[in-house]
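Technical note accompanying the year-one report. For the benefit of new consortium partners, we illustrate the data format agreed upon in the data management plan: each record pairs a sequence with a structure-token string. No post-processing was applied to the example shown here.
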Amino acid sequence: MPVLTFLEAIRSALHDAMAADQRIIVLGEDVAVKGGVFLATDGLLARFGEHRVIDMPIAEAAIVGVAIGAAIHGLLPVAEIQFADYIYPAIDQILNEAARLRYRSNGDWSCPIVVRAPFGAGIHGALYHSQSVEALFTSTPGIKVVVPSTPADAKGLLITAIHDPDPVVFFEHKQLYRSVRGDVPDGMYREPIGKAAVRRSGDDLSVFSYGLMVHYALTAAEQLAADGIDAEVIDLRTLAPLDRHTILASVAKTGRALIVHEDTLTGGVGGEIAALIAEHAFEYLDAPVRRLGAPDVFAAPFADPLEAHFMLNPQKIAAAMRDLAAY
């Protein structure tokens, strides 16, 4: 089984899926000649040609709009938004058109598109290259939101997303692209959308996270283990739909819940998970549900010390875990 970086796993998924199905096309800014700003689509143009790998203008609404039209006509488009920060012009197309197409056509049409977008801070990208925008998409029925944290999941979930009959927004944390490596199966395989993964089993508290923060939570859990605190770490993998069963089963076992995400605290996905736990697992709780997120500021700053203050890290997560375990 080859060992790939997160980025190589994304690229492998696209190459394998496109080779297996002629309906799959890739479109976005710089995805063809350049191979993507992070090189996620490198080699696709040479292998599959300009009719299936399409450089688009700097017009995100057009990128997603063209993808929707192509999907209606039988193709399986994968639209890349160069940075998640640029996705705002396409929100109308994603939420008002793609998400509602099945309903408005009385089930006659579906919209099998994938919208890929790198997200997250910590790379000195400042205002327009650091945002976490996933919460914008989790409140609209009809959209699936996927955020993998490992190379194997990145490939398996992307292949699943491409073949899903409904629209999927697929977020990839930029810090994971070249920093994380792992075993990735060859060829076509799928990981289920809507199913969380238990990355570390524990009995004292449950930590729920996704993307880069899963790795930070695992590091924090190992620090706490030295003090005799046994934390369970759940990788949500999918934010819409949430894996309610795994979330509630973990809380029922540990009695404590901490939700960690890089997005700002107010309005983040953590609020929905906290409400889910409070409503359906209250009798199991030995402490209040806790959330840990970025401060409620306008954006990730450019200056190193300010960005470090904005970002979560294993030490901040470990401190929150200790406080919760001691409650």
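Partners are asked to follow this layout when depositing records. The chain has a mean pLDDT of 97.
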